[in-house]
Amino acid sequence: MTSIDHITLEVADTSSAERFYTDAFGLGDRVRVRASDTPTSGFRGYTMSITVAQPADVTAYVDSAVAAGATVIKPVTTSLWGVGATVQAPDGAIWKIATSAKKDTGPAVREAESVVLLLGADDVKASKRFYVDRGLPVGKSFGSYVQFDLKDSPVQLGLYKRRALAKDAGVPEDGDGSHRIVIGGGADSVVDPDGFAWEAGAV
Fold it and tell me: Does the model's pTM come out above 0.90?
C-alpha cells in the first residue's frame, strides 16, 4: 500500500459517468466507475482534487466540467493560497481544481499536475497511524491535515478532518451511507478507520 493506481467511483449510470469523466477531466484510467445502488446521502466524506499550473487551467477544467454536466459549488476564486474552484459531478463526487499560482504564464491547457484524494477523517491521528503502519510515508503533517508522500503514484493521498474538508468543499458535513468510492492500490483489500475501502491494485 504505497501507491494508488486508480480510484473507482460507484455510480448509478456507468455510461453517463464514463462520458462525463472523459469530457470533463480526461484523467484516463486514474478514474474508473462501476455500477452501484448502495444508499448514500449528503457529504460522502472525501473530495478529489486536480492541481494545475496556473489560473487559466483552473478555468479550463471548470468550464469543461460544467459543459459535461457538473454543478459549480464554489466558482473560480483567488485566495491567499492561490486560485481554485469546486464542482460536483453528476454522480455526486466533489472535485476541486486549484493552483498555487496567481498569474498566468501561458495559454490555458487541461493538464493535471497531480490528482489527490482527500479523505475526511473523524480522528486524523488514528487514521494517520493506520496508514503509516501499512507503509505509507508522511510528506507533510500539521494539525488536522496529513499529506502522504506516494512518490510517482498516479493518485496522491491526504487526510483532513471531516468537518474541515466539508467546509473547504463548500458543503454541509452531514452525510451517511456508502462513501461510493473504492481505492485501488496495494496487495490486499482493507478498510480504513473511516470506512474507506481499498482493493488490490496493479501488480
Answer: yes
